[in-house]
Amino acid sequence: MKLLFCNIAWLDYYKGIYEGVDEPVGGGDYVKKTGDAHEKYNFEAIEIYGDDEKYCLGFVETKTTKTSQNQLHIERIRGCEELAGEDSVEDVLVIYCAKHPAHNFTTVVGWYNHAIVYRYYQQMNFSSDNPDEAELYVQNYNAIAKAKDCVLLPRRERSLYSKWSVPRRTSGAAYGFGQSNVWFAAEENELLKRFLNQIIKQIKEYDGENWLNKYPDIS
What we know:
By secondary structure, the protein is α+β, with helices and mostly antiparallel strands. The protein has helices at 29-34, 155-158, 161-164, 190-205; strands at 3-7, 46-47, 54-58, 88-99, 106-126, 137-146, 150-152, 182-183. 14% of the residues lie in helices and 27% in strands.
């Protein structure tokens, strides 16, 4: 199975930022400096092709250097070693993770099944819901999936450490996230193999509540 773990800022709903109700926590220096997060719409189902099918656009920040632009090395995804010259790969299980704001561990917040993952940021323009605002909102993304293949776990479900926690090598684990926001989980490690088997099984069997269509209560 083609698999990718992505570390993003924590939000309850990922339907935008609602001041005082749902604001990004964690996610790096950009979030701390601006209070904004490009991943704020990762789990908003939208129509983009003029039909009834809805999609989710996923963002994870990738590294850039002085000599190269932000790039997600899709050839490092297991089974994609021959794609070094390609700009995208299909049918990837993308697992979005974030540091829990109340507990000191990284947890799965949701996932895209059968996603297309892009090497470089893609852009899509959206007009504002406010008729007085003429400026377009530009959404960067590097994954896209049909909304029916996307799940956003409820906050309480994400708090289950024994079920959804994801390790970090920076905390001394033998496998897991390093300094990068993406983890390809391609190491040869027996403990990792067991972890992946368990997390994939839980995702396939999950039949609980999906917050994909749930919005903050701001009434």
